[in-house]
Structure formats: C-alpha cells, structure tokens
Amino acid sequence: MYDLYWHINHDKLFDFLIEPPEYRIADIRNHKPKDEVTLRLQLMKPVKNLPKKLIEAGQKFVEAYQEFVEANQEFDEVRQEFIKARQKLDETRQVPELQYRI
Q1: Is the dihedral angle over the CA atoms 16, 19, 25, 29 positive or is it negative?
Q2: Under a CB-based contact definition with an 8 Å cutoff, are residues 55 and 4 in contact?
Q3: pLDDT tens-digit map of 10-59
Q4: Rounded to whole angstroms, how far apart are CA atoms 9 and 50?
Q5: Domain boundaries, the chain
Q6: Closest CA to 46 of 9, 21, 74, 19
Q7: pLDDT value of residue 35
Q8: Ramachandran angles phi, psi of 9, nearest 5°
Q9: Contact 16, 58 (CB under 8 A)
Q10: Dihedral in degrees, nearest 10, Cα atoms 75, 70, 12, 53
Q11: CA 102 from centre of chain
C-alpha cells in the first residue's frame, strides 16, 4: 500500500509516496536548498480524509505504472538481444563464402 502525502514533490500538490517517508526526508535534507528544508519538511504530511475510491484508484495507477516500467525494461533487454543477433547476421553476410545469392 502506498501513502498519499502533501508536498512531497515540488511540482505536485500531493502524490503517492512509494518509499518510506524517512528516505524522502533524508533526500530533502541532503539535496534541497538549505533555506527550503524546514518549510518542505513542515508541509510534507500524510493526506487524510480523502474518499477511499480516490485513494484506491491512485494506488492502482502506481501499481500499473510500475508494471509498465518492468515491462519496458524487459522490452529493452529483448531489443538489445535482437540488436546483437542482427549485428552477427550482418557480420556473417560480409564473409564472401557465407553470403547468400539473390
């Protein structure tokens, strides 16, 4: 289950936190401008009292997106295998005795 938080990203009012809040807090402390850290941490709070259907829909979206990312990684791996196989085929075609005739 993913928790919905206010102000965890600079470009969104609220978003699902897909990692422990401590990781985001550490990221804010270590990578954000020092004069923004206190305010960012004060604003970052769990969202409460949203309709259950909205939360469930958001969680399904996050899960679907993660499945997409995984599928895209698999696609990239297969694509790399194809490129290597195509290169081997092209190399084979350059050897005169292995060239096929049209």
Answers
A1: negative
A2: yes
A3: 888 988 888 899 999 999 999 999 999 999 999 999 988 888 898 788 88
A4: 19
A5: 1-49, 51-102
A6: 21
A7: 95
A8: -130, 145
A9: yes
A10: 120
A11: 47
